[in-house]
Amino acid sequence: MTFPLPDSVDALKGMIGREITTLREAVRRNAERPLGGSSVTEPASPLQSLAVLPPSAEMDGSSPCLCGAHEPGGSGVCSVLAAIPASAVLLEPVQDDTGAVLDFRIVAGNRVRSANWLEAPEHQVGQRFLEARPGAASSGLLAALADVVDTGKPLDRLVVDYTEQRLGRIHRAPLLYSAARCGGQVLATWQPVQTQAELLTIDAQFLASMGWGHWDLLSGKITWSEGLSRIFHADVRMPWTLEQLCDALLPDDLTALAEFLSSVLAGEEPAWTRIRFLVLGERRTLDLLGRPVTGTDGRAWAVNLVARDLTPQIRSRRRLAETERESDRLRRQTEAERRVADALREAILPTHSEALAAVGLTVAASYRPAEPDAAVGGDWYKCRLLPDGRVLVAIGDASGHGLDAVARMAQQRHALAGLAQTGASAGEITTWLNELVCSDPAGQTATVVVGHLDEDKVLHWADAGHPAPLLLREGRAEPLGAEQRGPLLGALPGYAYETASTPLRPGDLLVLYTDGMVERRGEDVTEGIARLARAVAAGSSLRPRGVIDALLADPGIAGHEDDACVLGIRVD
Q: Per residue in 73-95, pLDDT tens?
């Protein structure tokens, strides 16, 4: 078959229709051609031959029996039963005086067993039907067969949920029954609705997201598997034609489907393609394998298609790609934050200048973020010589994490630097800082210790919810008295913080720190402060840098879960 590929769905459907019409006309001409110049009469099938058996004039038992067991040579319906591929019996009605059917007698049967626990019909010849099939009454089967006798209307594929107790066990099977009146008797056949192999095949198709379909181009009969019906959300009893498949096609895949169907309809070897369909508003991607069923003339008279639904895999790959894109975006954002944080750290946590040494102070500091990838957080310190000769000493902790906490930390630190230029006391500066934090719409809080060291080395300091500094003197480290300690910054607008004074001596080491150095989950903070004081005292012979390095090397101190900042100031 050679023809140009269609450029629209309607053209594709027209191509399919023309090919099927051409095929049927060719087959019809061959079928009607006489053989050897004489007409050929199509032989009747065994089941068709039942229709020409002499009908009974009455249903009173006076008609001749259609069972060959009563005829010489054994010809008749009984001889046909063996050719029926389903379980089959010939039943004779057992009626009462009024003609109502009470039961049936099994006149003949074949050897096909519809279930492994059911006997073959041929072994039940001569028995009453209710004796052989005790579940027939409760399942409604007996009434359905009696209706065939009374009305003459055939029973067509009735689903019977047949249940029977046999040898102490209850068995159940859905059976498909058909029956028709045959003279004064009834010919009944039955088979499983679905065999075990069919049920397993359905499960396998579900697990593999696969299905198959068969299109008989001559008769027009179409058969779909449960799997293919599930893929297209179609009723298995109403499968789609090839033209209906074209209607669900995405326009961009028209050429691919046209080439695929052209190959299969031409009787070529199995063809494969990947096609997208729109099913109930959802885009589904299928791998299609097509195989033609050809006759001796090489012409395809049927088409078999196997489909594998790739939609779940493609959906998973799409989600994975979106996740990777989101991870890449977050990675770039994190790298940008680190670069900003690095710049901020250099700007707001500088190395101390020689100006502090000139006024008799040795200073060291360290900052450790809780997250290894973070460069800076909400903790901060400040230690610098002011124009009036005092030394500004401060340490604080802005709540939160990430760049938001860094922004608040920078705001508070720079505000402190500006307020310190006014010559105000530590308490006044802290009071103003509190008003600044209270006015922040974010509603976050902060802690801080603000102090000044004057020329006489007296520390004048105020505390807003922060751990009090440790004073190392003569080998002992203890927290400074914090009776004047006030609430967190941002907690109480209008609160006036007090200033306390602590004289320092030569050799004293003042250690200021944030709560990340002392707070541990499930432990009282006083225990953490006592542990830090012992660690500071253990390094009394060291210079400030050595004390801080020892603290950070101590697993009990450095294993913090929060950002940690420590500032050491020794009076020389």
A: 344 667 788 889 899 999 999 99
